[in-house]
Amino acid sequence: MNIKMVLLASAAAFAASTPVLAADAIVAAEPEPVEYVRVCDAYGTGYFYIPGTETCLKIEGYIRFQVNVGPSAGGDNDSSWDAVTRGQVQFTAKSDTEYGPLTGVIVLQANADNASSQSTILDSAYLDVAGFRAGLFYSWWDDGLSGETDDIGSNVTLHNSLRYQYETGSFYAGLSVDELEDGVFKDGEEPNNVGVAFGIGGTAGAFSYQVTGGYDFDNEDGAIRAMGTAELGPGTLGLAAVYSSGPNSYYSIAEWAVAAEYAIKATDKLKITPGVQYYGNYFGSDSAVPDDFDGLGDAWKVGLTVDYQIVDNFYAKASVQYLDPEDGDDVTTGYFRLQRSF
């Protein structure tokens, strides 16, 4: 055996006697536990649990495109038409307490007249528990029939308020204390301070009703309103009447008014609503008002509104209104709207 063979045999023997070191094993980290969103059906559809809590949250809102028509519809530019866009989102949080559900609501609204004229506002924010509500919210005076031809509510219906409302399935009654600093005020006076309002309403079969009242302590006048709707034939008949003892933040448009409408369900997707209203001692909707309604002329209004549901959560609305005041010029206004809700 020569030297070369000896060296090769030695190398082979050394390799066979040397342990093989395995490469370090790759250990995959265990995934972090994930808490998936759980549906909360205790308060209706659309709620889910905020992860890690027992609070249920619902997010909803709408996107609206609207074209307004009428004299000076464009505001300062005296245009007879104006396009506006709005986006609104609402957050509603609910959780169980020993006093019943604790509710918190925040509504954010953004409006755009054009690219350089936009505004974002807090449209509502309030707390609600055991019938008590406190915060910024709309009063009962914001309610109406269809809200188009009828003009039976306050100029400003969004207030910082404290309210208690008792509710059953078909009846409610409540009392509120409202800050009225953005309400109407008489000539030579500052904006109002405080008012007290009440609301009573409910349903009885195909009939619904509401009685609303309010007293403005700064103006020392009040107003009361009654309205109801009833299923009648192919549609819904709505009637309303309002009386004001003098110009105040709850009602200042006229000393009294009566309104009627009939919402015709033409098809599953189409609704046609003609309406009419008559005003006694009509003033209008300016912020500064006279001391009383004496000597003012009457007015009447007629209108037509058409609603069409294009698909689920997406509808079109067109409305035209004609107003003829005894002490002023008649005026025709209207709008076309597209709105997608979610």
Report what the structure shows:
- With 342 residues, the protein is mainly beta.
- The protein has a domain of 76 residues.
- It contains one helix and 19 strands.
- The strands form two sheets. Strands 2-3-4-5-6-7-8-10-11-12-13-14-15-17-18-19 form a 16-stranded antiparallel barrel. It has a two-stranded parallel ribbon with strand order 9-16.
- The relative contact order is 0.11.
- The N terminus is likely disordered.
Features:
mainly beta; single chain; membrane; 16-stranded antiparallel barrel; 1 helix; ion transport; signal; two-stranded parallel ribbon; 57% strand; disordered N terminus; 342 residues
Helices and strands, in order, run as HEEEEEEEEEEEEEEEEEEE
Sheet/helix structural class: mainly beta
N/C terminus separation? 92 Å
Tell me the number of strands: 19
Number of DSSP helical runs? 1
Strand content: over 45%
Helix content: under 10%
The poorly predicted ranges are 3-8
Strand order of the largest sheet: 2-3-4-5-6-7-8-10-11-12-13-14-15-17-18-19
* Radius of gyration, CA atoms, in whole angstroms: 32 Å
Report the sheet with the most strands, covering strand number, pairing sense and barrel closure.
Answer: 16 strands, antiparallel, barrel
Spatial shape: globular
Average the pLDDT over all residues and give the rounded result.
90
